[in-house]
C-alpha cells in the first residue's frame, strides 16, 4: 500500500471520528427531553439503582455507627421485617399502577386524551414510583446480606424509615389525584400551562427578539431554495435563536412555512431559504422538532384545544353535563383575557444585531385563538341555556376588558354568530330571551348585561 493510500485512510478515519463525535441536533435533544419527561420507567429504574447502592453503604457503615440497644435485631426478626417490606413495596407498586389505569380510562372517556401528555409528567407520581422501587431494592439487598453472625441493624432501621416515607408519599399521591381528576381542576392545570407559554412569548416580544411582521415583510432578493421534511409529523417546536444565527452565518433569509402545531406531511416544504448560499438541509431540519402529536411547550393553542375538548365532551349526549362545560369556560375566558392583551400577528420575524430580518415564522392571530375557544362549544352547546348565557357573558366581558381595538371586531362577530345560533334553536320568545341573557354561572347568576 502506497503513501497516498495511508494518508487517505487516516483522513477517512478522522472524518469518521468527527462524524461520530458530532453533537446531537437540537431536534433530537428536544425529542429526548420530551421522552424523558413523559417516561414512567426511568425514575423507578433510578430508584432501584440508588436503593441498591444505599444498601451497600448501609452494610459498610453498620459497624461504624453505634445504635441504641432497642434498634438491634435478631437474624429472624431482621429477615421477617425485610421480607415484609419487599412484599409490601411490590403490592404498593401494583396499587399505583391500578390508579394509573383508572386515570387513563377517566381521561380518555370523559376528559381529553390529549391531557395525558401532562399527566405523564407529574413529578409526584414519578417520586412515588422511584421511592417504592428504591425501598424494594434497598430491602432486598439488605436481605441478601443477613448471615448467622451478621445483621445489618442500621439498614433494617433505615428500611423502616423508608417505608414510613413511602406511605406519606402514597397519601400525598392519593390526595393529589383524588382532587386533580375533577374536570375543573384539570382545566385549571392546562390553563396555567398555556399561560406560561404565552408569558414566555411575551418576554421574547418585549426584548425585541421577536417582532411582528405586518403584511408581507420585505425579503432579500435571491433564489428560493425549498427544504423538505424527510419524516413528517406534528411540528412541536423550533429554536428561533439558532435558526436566526444560522441565517446570519450564511447571509440568507429563512422562512418557516408551518406554525407550531401543524402536521407536516413527509416531503412537504418545511423551510424556504432565500439567498445564494443556503445552509445545509440537515442543519435546518435539526432545529425543528417533529413528533407524533402536538406538545404545549411552544404551542399555547394546544392548551386551549384541550380545554375545548373537555368542554365539548361534557356537552355530548352521553355525558350531558353543561355545568362542567361552564366551569371550563371560566378558564377559557381567563386564557382569552391573557392572550387578548397581546399584540398578535400572523407572522413574526427575528433580526440580527444589525437589524436585518433573518428568520420569518408563522404565528396565530387573535381571531384564531378566539374561534378555537368558542366555535365548537357554541355549535355543540347551542341547545343548552347554560352554555348560551355563559358564552354571552364571556364575550361581553372581553368587550369590556380593555383589549386592543383591533381585537374587538372579532368578539362582536362571535356575538352575532351566537345570536344566530340562539335564533335557530329557540323559537319561543321567552326561552330565546333567557338564552340571550348573559350569566357567568350559566343559570342562577342573575342578569349580567354590560352597562
Provide structural commentary.
The protein has 451 residues and is an alpha+beta fold. It is 61% helix and 9% strand. The protein has helices spanning 3-20, 26-38, 42-61, 75-110, 116-119, 123-145, 153-180, 183-207, 240-249, 281-285, 300-314, 322-340, 366-381, 385-399, 405-425, 429-435; strands at 211-212, 224-228, 233-238, 253-256, 263-264, 269-274, 288-291, 347-351, 357-362. The chain has a 6-stranded mixed beta sheet with strand order 1-8-9-4-6-2. Strands 5-3-7 form a 3-stranded antiparallel beta sheet. A hairpin with a 5-residue loop joins strand 8 (347-351) and strand 9 (357-362). Helix 13 (366-381) packs antiparallel against helix 14 (385-399). The longest helix is centred in the N-terminal third of the chain and has 36 residues, at 75-110.
Instruction: Tally the beta strands.
Output: 9
Main-sheet strand order equals 1-8-9-4-6-2
**CA-based shape:** flat
H and E order: HHHHHHHHEEEHEEEHEHHEEHHHH
Strand content: 5-15%
Class by SSE composition: alpha+beta
Question: Which value, in Å, is the CA radius of gyration?
Answer: 29 Å
- How large is the count of helical segments? 16
Helix content: 55-70%
Mean pLDDT: 85
Low-confidence stretches: 1-21
Oligomeric organization of the protein chains: single chain
